[in-house]
Amino acid sequence: MNCDDIKENDVIYRCIGDDFDQGILSCGFMRKRTADRSQYDFKIGYYSCFLILQGSGRFISQDGTVIPMQAGDLVQRLPERLHSTEIEPNGEWIEFYISVGYPVYHYLHKLGIINSDNEVQATRLTGDFAIDFAALLNSLKDAADERLPYLLLRAQELIIRLHGSVHSMQREHYDHKISKACQLIGASNDIHYDMEEAAAAINMGYENFRKVFKAVNGISPQRYHINHLMKQAKMMLLSGLPIKHVAVSLGYGDIYAFTKQFTKSEGVPPGRFTRNRLNQFD
C-alpha cells in the first residue's frame, strides 16, 4: 500500500451497543499536514492507539514528560489519561489508528498485552500491517451491526500484533543491555559488587533491571553473580589455593561466610569438594 494514496481522513466510527466508551470500534488512516491538527490536553474514556507511518512530533504525557514520536512508533491514548500529541507541521504525518472500548483495554492490560507504562513505543514495522489496516477499515465500513463483534476480534488481533512487535524490539534492545551487564558482573570477583552499578552502567533503573535480567537469564543478577563467584572459587580450590585465601580473594569477610555460601550453592563444603575432585583423578 502506497502512503501517497491515503486521503486526508479515511476513517470509520462504529459502536457495539449504546455506550460509546464501552463499545466503540473505530479505525482509519489520518493525514495531518498542519500544526492545527495537533491535539492538546486530550482525554478519552476508551482505548486508542495509532501507528505512525510517516512524520514526526512530540507526545506530552500527563506529568509533562515530552517524548519524541517518529515513524514506526506505536502511540497509545490511554483511558482517562490526559495527554497531548504535537505534530511536526511539515505535511508528512500519516497514522493508522484503532479504537476499542474500555472493557477490551481492561482485559488486554490485565493479560499483560498492553503496557500502560509507556505511551510511545518503537515497533518493528512491516508492510503487511498497512494491508491488514486497510482490510479492517474496509470491512468496518461495509459491515452490518451483527458483524461488528467479529470485526472487534480482528481489531484486537491487530492490537496484539502491534504490541507483539513492540515486545520483539524491546527484547532485542534488552538482550544487548543485559549481555553488557553480564560482562560487567562477570568481571567482578567481589561478593560485595553493587548490582545498582551494573544497572546504572546500562542506563536502567535497578528494579526494572532486576526484572528484565531475570526474564532474559532465568535467574536474578545476585544469583548470576554468586554462580560466577562459585565458579571462580572452584577453579582456585582445584589449583591448590587454601580456603582462606579463596574466601578473601572473593571478598568474603571470613571463612565461615564463604563456606556457608559455597555449601549452599554446591551441596558440599569447599574442603570436601576439593577432596572429592582430587580423588577422581587418583
Any overview of this molecule?
A hairpin with a 5-residue loop joins β5 (56-60) and β6. 48% of the residues lie in helices and 21% in strands. It has two domains: 3-166, Regulatory protein AraC (Jelly Rolls); 188-282, Homeodomain-like (Arc Repressor Mutant, subunit A), CATH 1.10.10. It is elongated and about 80 Å long. It contains ten helices and ten strands. The protein has 282 residues and is α+β, with helices and mostly antiparallel strands. GO terms for molecular function: DNA-binding transcription factor activity; sequence-specific DNA binding. This is AraC family transcriptional regulator. Pfam families: HTH_18.
How would you concisely characterize the structure shown here?
With 282 residues, this protein is an alpha+beta fold.
List the keywords.
single chain; 282 residues; alpha+beta; Jelly Rolls; Arc Repressor Mutant, subunit A; 2 domains; six-stranded antiparallel beta sheet; four-stranded antiparallel beta sheet; elongated; Homeodomain-like_sf
